[in-house]
Amino acid sequence: MATQKVKKVVIVGGGTAGWMAAASLAKLIGKNLDISLVESEEIGTVGVGEATIPTMITLHQLLGIKEQEFVSAVQGTFKLGIQFENWKNVGESYVHSFGFTGEDCWAAGFQHFWLKGKEQGISGEFGEYCAELQAAKQNKFAVLQRNALNYAYHMDAGLYAKFLRNLAEKHNAKRVEGRIVEVGTDHQSGDITHVTLASGQKVEGDLFIDCSGFIGLLIDKTLHTGYDDWSHFLPCDSAVAVQTKSVSEPIPYTRAIARDAGWQWRIPLQSRVGNGMVFCSKYLSDDEAIKTLLDNVEGETLIEPRVIKFRTGQRRQHWNKNCIALGLASGFVEPLESTSIHLVQRGIIRLLQMFPFDGIRKPDVEEFNTQMREEFLFVRDFIVLHYHVTERDDTQFWRHCKNMPIPDSLKHRIDLFKETGKIFQKAGDVFAENSWTQVMLGQGLMPEQYHPIVNMMSDEELKGFLGNLKHNVDRLVEQLPSHQQFIDNYCKAEAM
After folding, report:
1. Average of per-residue pLDDT across 73-88
2. Is the pTM of this model over 0.85?
3. Across the chain, how many H-helices and E-strands are there?
4. Which domain, by its residues, includes 458?
């Protein structure tokens, strides 16, 4: 493998992934690097509202981004979780929040205490013991000291790319305008040497980062890396997106509303709402999907609905030769749990940890690929869980999801929870025990037993324990301002 020192980095494609990479590399390790990002005004991006998960806060801290400035710049709002409607059954809903529910003990998660309490008729709903979930339901929010609430953001992805571009250019990353018409490779090694633009300009590099979206211009079209297709586990293959004017105050959570052959998202921003629908073309035509979406949005539409086709899966290698794929170029797991930006971020952090200043080495490439592959698989399993563990059998689509074969890794987790109530977080899995528990219970999977350590507590102690937890949650949430009040005082954006 090449041991040529890496001095020139070329990022192909802007958007969220490209500018996240440019800003992170330029700010954190860019002193001795020449960083160029090639993008074309001709190639537009879909300006949908984007939802995130709390890991983004860590990257922003690394980059020294001031939260108020960022949220205001991206027309952002705050997110405490996702409300899943019609997933378990039509007319039923639950919230997967970012919080910790109750208190665990050394041997067993809180769900075991809750299960015994439920058996005795003294437990409330599982979500009553989670401050983030209760705050979401009551439309309240605040940034608190000591991270007393876990949260993420809703934002305009186009504005976020702009915000990151400013940061990247401040730290000497260069933007090159132009449409790529040719990719040059070395005859011997097969490494990428340069990209040629329609103007004739050549942009040379030692390391290339492919952020060209689904097309995968470098990783696929040039290096023919191969793709693991997950359509047999995740049958949705299309999405339609549209923006609408806000007609009410933004809520501090994303809505994911299951429809007959897919699901609809609602992402509230300060001035508008990002709407869309992910669907399976086998059971729903593009026109039917557009109609379903437009029939179920609120407020005036601001753009024409646009249909996007996709194939869930991931590249067989995320790092191949001197090219690293990020974002949609690296793979795609539908945005049900808002993991897209997280996976970009994880790729960037790993690249920073393994950056080949002194040349690309095989062990780094292998380790990078192993970690990225595993992380994608964890996200895939979590998403498949929502479709498969359901009581719905009212449409062909849902009958298919309920009865389809699922990965062995997911089957094991489901069986373990169902039979014992246990969940163990795997190394590299972004979703902790509490996330898996909330979704499994929310989808209707009830454990058959709880851990016997719970019986060390007397009935009276258990009652006091549960009551105290609920009291603390209620007291915290009671003190919070409304989500809108907090935004107005903390990070109000200019009207668009």
Report:
1. 98
2. yes
3. 14, 22
4. 80-152+385-478
